Amino acid sequence: MQAVVLENFGGPENLRYVDDFPTPSVGEDEVLIRVKAVALNHLDVWVRMGALAVKPSLPHILGSDVSGIVEKVGSLVRNVKEGDEVIVAPGISCGVCHECQSGRDNLCKEYDILGLRSKGGYAQYVKVHARNVIRKPANLSFVEAASYPLTFLTVWNALVGKGKIGPHSRVLIWAGSSGVGVAAIQLAKLMGAFVITTAGNSEKAKRCRELGADMVIDHYTEDVPKRVREMFKEGVDIVVDHVGEKTFWKSVECLKKGGKLVFFGTTTGSYAHIDIRYLFVREIELLGVYMGPRADLYKITELFERGLLKPVVDRVFPLQEAPEAHRYLEKSLHFGKVVLKVD
Ligand SMILES: [Zn+2]
């Protein structure tokens, strides 16, 4: 099959297009999907660079967010059939442990993300367990459908699961133009919250407002905690931080007493200085988020079907141009998702 193969860890040049990668064979409880589109995530960049504690064996295939058509199902599969249009829930877990059976599969001891250790969707075909296959919203194209699972699942876990967001909530979302940013702005608005976000230029700021952000701060030229406190003297209820080292403590400074910092992703580095006393005196909660329970993807998918959430696709590249797509993502020029189209 055609695939973009990661041969060595490092720059985008290590992604090589081949047309003779072995097509996966499916077990009795697995599904083979003919990939139509696969979205990029920053996770792809980390895996490509070999920058994570967990590394895949090489050659590897990246890609966590897949949409496509069911090509073949194992003999025990009942939930989908050949020809169905589907998306893939990117979280892979054992399915039988206590956490999995309690709906906390993202805490499974064997948890993996498609494209992290398992071979992902930068290919003509991908195989996953039947439990990872969900019907594609009929109102979305394949490109649009590939654009939402990982980011929306993570953001749902952050805002709804951990953050306990409600109409009363005041939320700060860093980097509103990113994949998780556009997801978080929409979801927070849908929940009725007041949304402050940050953007790196006026065009991105305008688009964040169009998505529903109530206030946009330029994170390059403005003092974010100061601006937040001009708006809300006591601070905000929830901060969504996926930037990491550069923003972590600023996020804490934006929170009101009893506020929650929900965090995942470390695009600027993974070490932060923390003043423990400041945290306990204010009863600040630090809540780590790693994707989210798979079941929430059904709720998210329904909200897309009902038109309450919208995919935000910035640019589409053909599969062969995966290295170019990575370079583009790393330049941070995008607004929303970068997607590879597979034919
Ligand atoms: Zn498990």
UniProtKB/TrEMBL annotation:
Keywords: NADP. Gene3D superfamilies: Medium-chain alcohol dehydrogenases, catalytic domain (3.90.180.10), NAD(P)-binding Rossmann-like Domain (3.40.50.720). This is Alcohol dehydrogenase zinc-binding domain protein. CDD domains: Zn_ADH_like1. It comes from the Bacteria. InterPro entries: ADH-like_C, ADH-like_N, ER, GroES-like_sf, NAD(P)-bd_dom_sf, Zinc-ADH_QOR/CCCR. Pfam families: ADH_N (PF08240), ADH_zinc_N (PF00107). It comes from Thermocrinis albus (strain DSM 14484 / JCM 11386 / HI 11/12). GO terms for molecular function: oxidoreductase activity. Residues 10-340 form the Enoyl reductase (ER) domain.
